[in-house]
Amino acid sequence: MTLKVTAKGFELPDYMEAHIESEFAKFDKFQVVFHSRNVFMKLEPGRQFIVEIAVKTSVGDIEASADEKELSDALNAAFARLERQIIKKKEKPLAHRSELNERDKENFLKEEEASAEAAADIVIAENNK
């Protein structure tokens, strides 16, 4: 898992790389494996910071970006967007409309029918005694 931080148009403060690392550590709760992590920060004319985050994860490639007047605000907004996208990609297979969910529903219904039939057979057997 590599972390590549690039700053263009300004000098990146020393504490900022540690802050970025701690922000990525917060994603451990989602149990997602990061294969590569790229953070690109750019200072536009007019003191506008643009932060772009591109990651390769076990749930796919994800990109998030934000632009704000302050670097820390742009970084926090980009990480918030990244978090929403990770949740979305991680939860999508469990969505109501997914094919996997349809198969699970069918299997569940079959199991319910089989258990209902078994219960009915037991009741009939007990009544015949």
UniProtKB/TrEMBL annotation:
InterPro entries: RHF-like, RHF/RaiA. Residues 92-113 have a biased composition (Basic and acidic residues). Residues 92-117 are annotated as: Disordered. Transmembrane segments: none annotated. It holds the Pfam family Ribosomal_S30AE. This is Ribosome-associated translation inhibitor RaiA. It comes from Photobacterium kishitanii.
